[in-house]
User: Fold this.
Amino acid sequence: MNKFFLEIITPEKTFYRGEVESINIPALGGACTVMAGHQPMVFATEPGVIRITENGKTREAFMSEGFVEVRPDETIAFSQAVEWPEDINERRAEEAKERAEEQLRRNRSAAEYRLNRQALQRAFARLRVKHHNYMDQN
Ligand code: ATP
Assistant:
């Protein structure tokens, strides 16, 4: 399968740099799979599980809110946080999930509701990546 150059960048580091066959990313409105020759585009992502296929092997990682720029020769993803399963602190994600659920129960303003929904989505996605088949209760 044809390859293309993928770079995934966070404010802290370059998470990924290399030639890949595909990447599947949770975009707003549905998952998007980018392969070599994909038409150029820019899209926003939502917190979830990304799947990177390199040399026939697929690895999963957590990616937070961000943007993806698909160019003819390379794809660049920017996100606040991207983590491999082994780097995810499960306890911290559980605590973030409980905090967000508690805040959502308090029924605050629409803006706070959105922020807490996103925090909950990040926590669920981290737990899903950590356990691969963690039940999505969202
Ligand atoms: P928390 O409320 O626990 O900070 P969050 O979803 O608000 O969670 P982010 O804003 O996505 O956190 O990330 C802030 C920084 O903390 C990033 O560098 C991210 O990689 C790291 N981080 C957040 N949660 C975890 C986790 N469960 N395990 C490992 N790193 C994490």
